[in-house]
Every structure is written in structure tokens, then in C-alpha cells.
Amino acid sequence: MPEPGHATTHRRRPRTMVRSATAVAVVIAVAAGGAYAAGLGPFDRGAADPDRGPDPAAMAQARAFLTDWAGGRLPSAAGRTTSPGPAQEVLRNFTAGLDISRPALTAAKAAAAEDGTVSVPFTAKMPVTGLGTWTYTSRLPLRKQDDGTWKVAWRLSLVHPHLSGTQKFRLEREETHGPEITDRAGAALSSDAHPSLGPVLSQVAGAGTGGPRGSIKLVDRATGQVKGTEATFGKKPGRPADRPVATTIDAAWQSAAEKALASEADGKDAALVALRIDNGEILAVANSPSSGFNRAVSGTYAPGSTWKIVTTSALLLKDAVKPGDTVDCPRYLTVGKRFQNVETSEYRGATFLKDFTKSCNTAFISLRDRLGDQESGDVARKYFGVGQDWHVGIPSYDGSVPTPRDQTEKAASMIGQGRVLANPLIMASVTATAVSGTFHQPAITRGDQDTTTTTPLPRKVVTQLRAMMRATVTDGTARILADLPGGIGAKTGTAEVSEEEPNNGWIVAHRGNVAVACVVEKGVTGGASAGPVVRSLLAAVPTDPS
Predict the structure, then answer these.
(1) pTM for the full model?
(2) For position 200, what pLDDT does the model report?
(3) What distance in Å separates the CA atoms of residue 22 and residue 19, rounded to the nearest whole number?
């Protein structure tokens, strides 16, 4: 297959214990900085974009290019450049050739040059399937066209500073032989019995042998000679390969999770995590499709309204609002952009409790001035451990809640949009923390290092959160779970991706000693897409794990 950044290379290399990666399909990504769409979600497409920089239009084009690239919409990304054909081919070969599954690309402050061009630095976090994340910085050059629009001035070096007409990259993986993997009861786990565990088991096995090992090499295009090593992955073995590795996976919960995704996700890409509330042990990790990227643990998604659990915690912690306070829920609210509620609903004279149960975006956004710009992020980190370095036992993405750059972004972050990023593992942990008051680092193997430092939530806040999540099941958007026993509490979410993509659907729930989070890509709404998945799971496993 073509090497990354080159369209016609077919050079064959000798077979050794090091082998090159094969191409994988580029997975649709949900990355920071996504365009705001209306659909059934909180943003109105017709509103203006208040980007700041030398020229707002240039910055908007740069962010749109990065969002399309991260989202796997390569024809659209290439169309924003001065050379669409070569750009599309290079971007495709770069991501596929290096097994990069879900890029996260974040733009920084733009700078204008004397010749009228604009340069936009960006940080690239490139998850290399099964190995880890390759992080580097580059910059986008933009030039104004004759028709007044801005285009990314295409050159190889914008993809990576070392990519050029004479140099390209090559991914090399080392063969490793992993140990047997067992569930929490000591029974062997396999991808044959649990197909969705395929990527998880390889990651756990790799951890037992020092992790999957590999590197990204910079090589000469003509000779194939290695010019340098850009990134290395893996470490020396931590235990003998013939010693079994015990996990916290519960076979019953895992089977039920996989069946729920297969029967209720309607063939869409989806992911689910279930974990114990009292200690963070992961009971089930399910992905659909079952092979490839472990989106449940390493995905980067806007969590949408499920994030209102954290926003509500921040408001309750400083007594900025009470559940019974009147917080009006209008159909629209403009903060730079026009925000709206799902299906443009409204609840005039609603209490904050009703705003939570009905997932009113405009009500939450109206409370933004009661929190400092960094306050939601501080609460997420201090009480929920989000953004700290987690040691789960396999590679994981541990969340990001950056300080909003303006009031529009602050409004978006109140409802889990903007640059707030999470995944089902994070949101299952957030749910467990909210209903217990104590953060426990999630883990899929026992004995993992815990470097997190958190503070317990006050008991009053926990009591209020539990009551609000229970009311969301009995009287709100999570009524799909209302007929199940066990005093279930939940929160649904709808998260926007871009103007071209349907919204992602979310739901988080807790019952007994288990917290669950599920996302269904392009699911439109959480209650209609992720809700049936979690309902199927909880109905199939009616008791807590031992």
C-alpha cells in the first residue's frame, strides 16, 4: 500500500520480526473544534461565528479544515486547500498508512504575516491503533484567494513539519506474544467468545508484555533509509508472557453489553462501558464494530448533555442554584451563536430540576455567569478526576475541559459541547462519582498505579444529583428505563458533530453498584438511540456483580 504522504510508492521490505502496519479504514472522529450545527441539537446554523484572529474568515477556514481532517471527511478537508487532489491523497495515506484512527487536532492563535498570509499553529494528537498517541505540532498556512475566500495553502509540511518530497513516514510494529487473559472469576477470555473485546484483549496482553511495541520512522522516499525516529511506543515486558493476566471484566456483563449493541445500536458505530461504582473496576467494554479502534476507552467525543452532571455539580457546590429555583427554559438563547433545545422545545417558568430532567440547553446556558470561566474545568478535575492522568491498564483518553476562549464557547461548554471531550469510560466514571461522591480511578486490571488526587463531593450535592437523575428516569428524557427495577437514575445527551453529520446520542445510568455510559454515533438523540442499548443491558443482567 502507499506509504503515508505518498501516492505511488510500492516498495517491498524484507520480512523480519518487524512488520509494517496495514491500512485501516479512517474512522469518523469527533474532535475538538467541530462546526456547530442545528439539527435537533443546541446550535442554530444561521448564526455568525465570532472567531478571533487576524481575519475571522481565515481562522474559521483553518478550524473547518482541521475538523474535517479529524472527522475523516477527507474530500471536504482537501477541498479547503489550494490543491484538493494531492491533499486528499496525502491525508488518506498519512492516516491509513500509519494506522491513525481518530485524530484530535486543536488550533492555536493565528498570526498574520506581512505578505497577507495567515499562519495557524495546531497540535495534533494521532492515536496509532494498538500502540498509543503520537503528539506533535505543525501549522496551517492560509492565503486569500482572488474571490475573497481563504484557502489552506497546500504543502506536505503542514501535515507534519518533517513530511516532504524527499522524506516520508513508516510505521513499524514489533511482534509480541501475549499471555492468557482471564475475567474477574479466573475464566479465560477470548475474542471468539466476546468479539468486542478483541482490541481490549490485545491491549491488556500488550501491557503484560511491556505493551505493544513499535515506532514511527522518518525514511528517505527514494532509498527507504531510516533518517530518524519520530515516535516510539511500548516498553520492556513487565511480566513473563506465560503468566495469565487477570482483568476485572465480568463475563455476564460483557456478553450482555455486546448483545445490547448488536441488537439496539441499529448498525451504527457505538460504544459502552460498565463499571463498579465502589471501586472503579471495569465490568464491560463493548465497541461496535467490534474490531479496530477502542472508542469506548480512547474515543474523543463531545459528551453533550450528559456533561450537565458536572455543570450541575459546579452550580450546586457554590449554591449558585437550587433544584427548586425557577430557571426559565426558552426555545432559543443567543450568546454569539443562537443556541436551542432539542426539537426547539421550551418550558417557561421551569424549575432547575425540570431543566435537568428535560435537558434544557438554554436554561443551563443562562446560568453561565454564575460560574467562573475555569470553574467547570476545575470541578471536573478536582472532584471527578477528568483530565488527570489515569492508569487504567490499557491506553485511555482521560478527558479535556479547557478554559473557554470566549462567551460563546463558555455557553457551549455548559452543555458539554465546545472543546469539552470525553468518552464512555469517562462518563461512566463521572456517573459513578456523582452518585457515590467519591472518584475511583477506573481500571481493567488490578494493581495499576493511581496518581490521581481528588476531593469527595459533599453529601448534600450527591443527594441532589441522585434525586435529579432519578427524576430524569421517572419524569424526563430517560423514561425508556422507567419500567426497569432497581431505582435507576440516568441522564441523556445529544452531542453535535458538524453541519454534515447527524448528532451523536448519549445516555449514562446507574443502578445499584454499577454505572453505565453509552454513545451511539449519528444516533440523533440519546433517549432514542443509546437508551435502548442501556435498557437491554440492564434488563439482561438484573443483579450487581460479585
Answers:
(1) 0.69
(2) 85
(3) 9
